[in-house]
């Protein structure tokens, strides 16, 4: 493969076809490998993922069939100096998010200052009245955060969205690395790559550090899953196993003597920290949805009395709202006193009259997203949509403009994938994973690289046909 034939920034190749420094050692190794051997390795990797059970379910699929997330063997490589700069921006943003959560459930200084419109949360279902005036143990709201980044140039990373509720995908990051190390051990002997395999241990330590002050001895941590039919169940089971934590469902837990306790073979045993992968609505049928069979009746009372830590805190989902995202530059500056080190993608707030007019005029050129949407659903990618699709979306936009934000169609960077014809560029994004505790902010070097496997596609979500790569941060 030579230089990329499009105008996007190619992370491996410079415009003149030379290999960028971060990829130089990998390129040298790759040039010595037989193409048919690499194809056999790709088949071997798929067999490994299938045996391990690394699958996901797609909501709304009629057959409910579990699918493999496609894995590409060409790593996405980031230099150590690039990562250090990125990390400073990620840490700044996560600090601001946590401070924002505290303020929003207490004095709401950012609203009083006029920096953030009250309408953004007053009628927002993700903002929970039950959290008003309550501070979680250690003052931590966002224990695990995933910040989605895109790259548009040599030194240009932008934040695409924040995931502060229940960010997923870390199990794929870990399994991608394990697969690469098993298949190409000589690569890791030649190239110094920062490790990610210690993430579960760091997660367990970070969660334990957030245990309620009254905890006696070593905190007991459990992972709450909705069950085997959830799209991310593999990840829930994987992380519980890797952390040495208990994997529980709602019917395994009950409130006894003011504590949330889990059923064991020797009776009920209290837990101190619950890493929940259940949405707020289903967490407590006595507080939220009364028909929920996934949560624990009374857990919110125990939580508010200081008897358990819930990670992430209920109510943090408001930070995932794309209308809130549009104000993140103001939020970062308000709580840190600094300009954002990582800029947002330019965003038009369709709730604002001037922005809506511009978006309607430029609809075929823009990407429009639902403020509560995720997974690549409920969005319009103007340049790749038909006139009929654009006009249908225009009607939805006019009917409910506050439900949408719009962004330019970005020239996302590309990384090579392995095809039958050799290497070919495909668009990528990056989700670094961040752990927050009273002891500080811990950023795993790399994260999950998602790749749009279809030529020209900008949609990297696994539910929309995307795949994943191993993300290498060089130890330089």
UniProtKB/TrEMBL annotation:
Classification via Gene3D superfamilies: 3.30.1490.270, 3.40.50.11290
* Domain Circularly permuted ATP-grasp type: start-end pairs: 75-452
Which Pfam families does the protein's record reference? CP_ATPgrasp_2
Output the InterPro entries linked to this UniProt entry: ATP-dep_Glu-Cys_Ligase-2, CP_ATPgrasp_2, UCP005522
User: Which named protein is this?
Assistant: Circularly permuted type 2 ATP-grasp protein
């Amino acid at each position: 493969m030579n230089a990329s034939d499009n105008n996007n920034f190619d992370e491996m190749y410079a415009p003149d076809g030379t290999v960028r420094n971060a990829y130089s050692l990998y390129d040298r190794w790759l040039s010595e490998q037989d193409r048919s051997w690499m194809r056999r390795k790709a088949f071997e990797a798929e067999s490994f993922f299938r045996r391990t059970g690394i699958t996901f379910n797609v909501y709304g699929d009629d057959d409910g069939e579990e699918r493999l997330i496609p894995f590409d063997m060409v790593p996405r490589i980031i230099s150590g100096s690039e990562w250090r700069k990125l990390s400073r921006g990620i840490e700044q943003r996560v600090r601001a998010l946590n401070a924002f959560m505290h303020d929003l459930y207490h004095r709401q200084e950012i609203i009083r200052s006029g920096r953030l419109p009250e309408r953004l949360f007053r009628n927002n279902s993700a903002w929970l009245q039950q959290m008003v005036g309550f501070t979680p143990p250690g003052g931590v709201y966002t224990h695990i955060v995933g910040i989605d980044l895109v790259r548009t140039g040599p030194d240009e990373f932008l934040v695409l969205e924040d995931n502060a509720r229940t960010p997923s995908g870390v199990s794929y990051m870990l399994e991608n690395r394990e697969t690469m190390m098993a298949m190409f051990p000589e690569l890791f002997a030649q190239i110094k790559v920062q490790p990610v395999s210690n993430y579960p241990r760091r997660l367990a330590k970070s969660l334990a550090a957030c245990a309620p002050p009254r905890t006696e001895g070593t905190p007991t941590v459990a992972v709450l899953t909705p069950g085997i039919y959830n799209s991310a169940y593999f990840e829930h089971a994987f992380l519980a196993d890797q952390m040495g934590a208990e994997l529980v469902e709602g019917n395994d837990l009950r409130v006894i003597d003011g504590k949330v306790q889990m059923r064991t073979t020797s009776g009920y045993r209290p837990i101190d920290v619950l890493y929940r992968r259940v949405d707020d609505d289903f967490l407590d049928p006595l507080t939220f949805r009364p028909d929920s069979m996934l949560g624990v009746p009374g857990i919110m009372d125990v939580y508010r009395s200081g008897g358990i830590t819930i990670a992430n805190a209920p109510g943090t989902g408001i930070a995932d709202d794309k209308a809130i995202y549009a104000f993140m530059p103001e939020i970062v500056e308000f709580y840190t006193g600094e300009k954002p080190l990582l800029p947002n993608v330019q965003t038009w707030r369709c709730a604002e009259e001037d922005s809506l007019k511009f978006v309607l005029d430029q609809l075929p050129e823009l990407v429009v997203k639902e403020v509560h949407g995720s997974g690549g659903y409920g969005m319009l990618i103007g340049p790749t949509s038909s006139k009929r699709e654009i006009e249908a979306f225009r009607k939805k936009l006019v009917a409910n403009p506050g439900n949408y934000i719009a962004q330019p169609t970005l020239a996302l960077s590309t990384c090579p994938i392995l095809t039958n014809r050799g290497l070919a560029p495909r668009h990528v994004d990056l989700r670094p994973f961040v752990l927050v505790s009273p002891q500080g902010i811990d950023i795993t070097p790399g994260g999950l690289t998602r790749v749009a496997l279809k030529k020209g596609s900008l949609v990297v979500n696994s539910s929309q046909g995307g795949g994943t790569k191993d993300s290498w941060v060089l130890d330089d």
